[in-house]
Amino acid sequence: MIIKRLGILGGALLLLAACNQDLGGADMATPEDLAMPEDLTQTLKGSCDLRKYSPAQQECRDYESASSSFITTYKGTCTTAAAWQDALCNHTGAIGGCRTNIPNLGGGTLVQWYFSQSGLMTQAEVQAKCTAGGQTFVAP
To answer: Taking the complete model, does pTM exceed 0.70, yes or no?
Structure first.
């Protein structure tokens, strides 16, 4: 009878040793496994303000995208005659804007904002300019 009990006890110990269900053991997920994916819904913004140093060009361009390469590329094209900022343009006094969807570089949008000093005097003139360029009119 004692030998039979020792056999049962030995078998139970062997079974428990094989399971290895310690908390934090090798079979548990690591923090890397539980990491959340990158938030692809974050919208990056920037603008190139041509009004800063060139009063003759009364235009400001807003760029928005989830792609950092999109924003970086257009930041690089903002000339020394303009001013880049990591925010949208100040739209105070804008007549309207023309929105263009740009599919390259991860995709994004450009809105060119026009002000009365740009030679356009009414929203109808900005709308006509947008339509002629295949763009969408945006009210201020």
So the answer is: no
